[in-house]
Structure formats: C-alpha cells, structure tokens
C-alpha cells in the first residue's frame, strides 16, 4: 500500500501537474474475519502424500523446487461448506479411472473446482474438465456420473444448490470459450447486499467478502460525492452491484464489462431491484467508454468508478476518461494496486488527465492475508 503511494508522489515533481496533497486513511476493517469467502477456487496437483489427485492450494514455487497441493482444511477464511465440497470432489476423482490434468502438456482430464455460496448458505459448484480426445457422448457420461455422485451418492451430503460441468481445452475458461452445462439445480445464486438482491452466475464477478463489500461500496460513494445530478460511469461493473446500489443516489448510471454473462446478470439485477435509471453494456472498456461518454451528451456531473481486475485498466480506457472534461472525479478500486499496469493507470490519470490524488483508503476485504482492497480518489 505504501509503495503505491510513494511511487505516485515520488514521480509527481517530474510531471506537469498541479500540486496535490493526499490523505492516507486507516484501514477499514471487515465486519467478519472468519469463513467470509463466498467463492473459492480449488486446484488439483500432487499432494504431500504423493497422490496426484489432491484438491487444494499450491505451496512452493517451480523456480525453487517442487510444488505440492495442500488441502484448505485449516484455513479459517474458507467456509466449512466449501471445504466439504472440495473433499467430496477429491474423493470422487480419486475413484475415477481418468487421470488428472495437473499440467496441460501431460494430458489428463480432471481440473479445478470452483465453489460459490451466498449468505443464506446456498452452494454452487463448478467442475472444469479437459476433454482431450473424448467424444461428446463420453463427456455426457462423465457429467451424468458426476451428477449422480453429488445428487444421490456420497456427495449428496454437501447439499449443493447447483452443479455445473465445464469441458474446456483452454488454460483459462470463460463461458464464451466453453459453455457451462448445468447438471442439476438452480442456474444462479442470489446474494443480498443491504436491501438489494443480486443474481450471480458461475463466472460472474462478485466481491469475495459480502459483508466487507458493503463497507467498500459505501466508502466509494462517499469519496465520489454522489448527488441527484450525478451520472455514474461504472467501469468493469461485473454484476452491476455498484450501479444498482448507487441508483437511488444519482441521476443515472451506465456500467460496462467485458464478461457478457455478468452484464446479463447486471441487467436482470437492475430489473429485479427496480433500478430503472441504470444501463449496462457488454464489451471491452477501451472500446465502449468513448461511445458511452459521447452518448451522455451534456451531462454536467459525471463521476467514474473504476474496478478492474489485477491487471488494471487498458491505457486507452484511461485515455477516454482523461479526455472527458465533464468527469471531475475518478474513484479507482484496486485489488492489486502495486502491479505495473495499475500504477501506470494512476500516472496516466495524473499526467494526461491532470487529476490529483486526494484520498487513499484501504479496506480489509481479505482478513488473515496481507492484502487489502485499495480505493484511490482522483479529482481535477
């Protein structure tokens, strides 16, 4: 956190920007510190017992020696229900004659497991499977076996609300590359945040700590100085959480996200919450922002909220924000603020957009880790 601020302020003197002073706030704590994660990604690799079909988390680095997979049994930030699903899946693949896909070059089929849940305790599991040379009929057979195991077999003790099966040949699988097959249950989870309800799909982005997310969003709104005359530009909007929560405070909101299923969820969430003054657009931010801004016409007060992934925002998207003079304030939410591209985003806002850094607020969305979500407020 300190490194990010130092990088920005150290270089300010060499930039052609007006003088600014920032305030570094105390870390805002999470209301819950144990069992808070609503999503976990369990990977497959050789365990400490030498079994290549072990589900958990990697320990070690290929550069320093062997990497082993350790179960998440004793991790206090993971919900017990998630651990039980991961153990049940490990039991299942250990009984399967099909080999694991630990390394793409070595073949194999069984891959990672994603478990999601909501505050009501409903559970969604997503199994990713490498098809290799299996025919469609065999893939359907494997899906049917998995369904039977979790619906009527030993895995039924997990009480899954839904189970998805995703045959995928890519290292990073999206719904566009490899559609999800719903084996049983509800297609979505519904999460409640304040008095709003949000539909979450298998690959939709939703903050991993629901209780702390409320703290995060209220902090963003405070720094954004929202008014009934504000138009909110929600960049990397995910399932529309930010726009919908802000809908009662602003004139209107427009969200953009590259994940089409997330945008579909956002639109449905807007309808379900009767947020009629929000709109969501699917596409790359760097391509859509210029068109969105052009469509806002004479809107006098635009506030941009940026909430990208770890790699930050595309420079062309930042350029579009800088070129819109109606945007007087940008609130940037970062989960990895010290990444080179993210720091470049900050520098570009200050140099090209003539924005000044005013506030830096860390929010602890990840208790028991060294990470915090960082909120930076830029104004001009």
Kindly list the characteristics that best describe this protein.
26% strand, globular, alpha/beta, 9 helices, 7-stranded mixed sheet, 8-stranded mixed sheet, single chain, 380 residues
What's this entry about, in short?
With 380 residues, the chain is an alpha/beta fold.
Describe, in plain words, how this protein is organized in 3D.
This protein is of the alpha/beta class. It has nine helices and 17 strands. It has helices spanning 2-11, 80-95, 136-151, 210-224, 241-246, 260-272, 285-295, 315-323, 340-351; strands spanning 23-24, 39-45, 54-59, 68-70, 110-117, 123-129, 162-167, 181-185, 189-193, 196-200, 231-235, 252-257, 278-282, 302-306, 327-334, 356-363, 373-379. The strands form three sheets. It has an eight-stranded mixed sheet with strand order 1-16-17-15-14-11-12-13, sandwiched between helices. Strands 4-3-2-5-6-7-8 form a seven-stranded mixed sheet. It is globular and about 65 Å long. The model has no long low-confidence stretch (mean pLDDT 91).
User: How much beta, percentage-wise?
Assistant: 25-35%
Major sheet: 8 strands, mixed
Please state the average pLDDT score: 91
**Tertiary shape:** globular
Reading the helices and strands in chain order gives HEEEEHEEHEEEEHEHEHEHEHEHEE
Unreliable stretches (pLDDT < 50, length at least 5) are none
Q: What fraction, in percent, of the residue positions are helical? A: 25-40%
């Amino acid at each position: 956190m300190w490194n990010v601020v130092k990088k920005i302020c150290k270089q300010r003197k060499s930039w052609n920007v007006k003088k600014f002073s920032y305030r570094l706030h105390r870390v805002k704590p999470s209301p819950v510190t144990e069992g808070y994660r609503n999503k976990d990604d369990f990977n497959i690799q050789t365990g400490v017992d030498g079994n290549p079909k072990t589900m958990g988390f990697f320990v070690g680095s290929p550069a320093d020696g062997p990497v082993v997979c350790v179960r998440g049994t004793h991790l206090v930030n993971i919900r017990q229900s998630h651990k039980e699903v991961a153990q049940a899946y490990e039991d299942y693949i250990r009984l399967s004659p099909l080999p694991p896909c630990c390394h793409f070059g070595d073949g194999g089929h069984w891959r990672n497991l994603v478990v999601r849940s909501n505050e009501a305790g409903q559970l969604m599991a997503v199994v990713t499977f490498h098809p290799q040379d299996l025919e469609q009929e065999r893939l359907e057979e494997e899906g049917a076996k998995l369904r039977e195991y979790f619906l009527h077999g030993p895995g039924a003790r997990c009480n899954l609300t839904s189970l998805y099966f995703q045959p995928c040949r890519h290292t990073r699988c999206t719904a566009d590359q490899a559609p999800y097959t719903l084996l049983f249950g509800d297609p979505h989870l519904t999460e409640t945040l304040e008095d709003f309800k949000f539909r979450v799909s298998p690959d939709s982005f939703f903050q991993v700590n629901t209780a702390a997310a409320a703290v995060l969003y209220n902090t963003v709104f405070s720094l954004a100085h929202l008014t009934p005359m504000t138009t909110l530009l929600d960049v990397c909007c995910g399932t529309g959480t930010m726009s919908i929560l802000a809908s009662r405070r602003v004139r209107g909101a427009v969200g953009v996200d590259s994940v089409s299923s997330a945008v579909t969820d956002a639109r449905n969430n807007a309808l379900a919450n009767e947020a009629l003054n929000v709109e969501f657009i699917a596409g790359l931010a760097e391509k859509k922002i210029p068109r969105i801004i052009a469509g806002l016409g004479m809107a006098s007060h635009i506030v941009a909220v940026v909430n990208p992934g770890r790699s930050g925002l595309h420079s062309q998207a930042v350029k579009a924000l800088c070129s819109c003079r109606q945007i007087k304030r940008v609130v940037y939410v970062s989960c990895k603020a010290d990444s080179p591209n993210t720091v470049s985003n900050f520098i570009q806002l200050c140099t090209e957009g003539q924005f000044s850094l005013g506030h830096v607020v860390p929010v602890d969305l990840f208790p028991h880790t060294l990470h915090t979500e960082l909120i930076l407020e830029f104004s001009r």
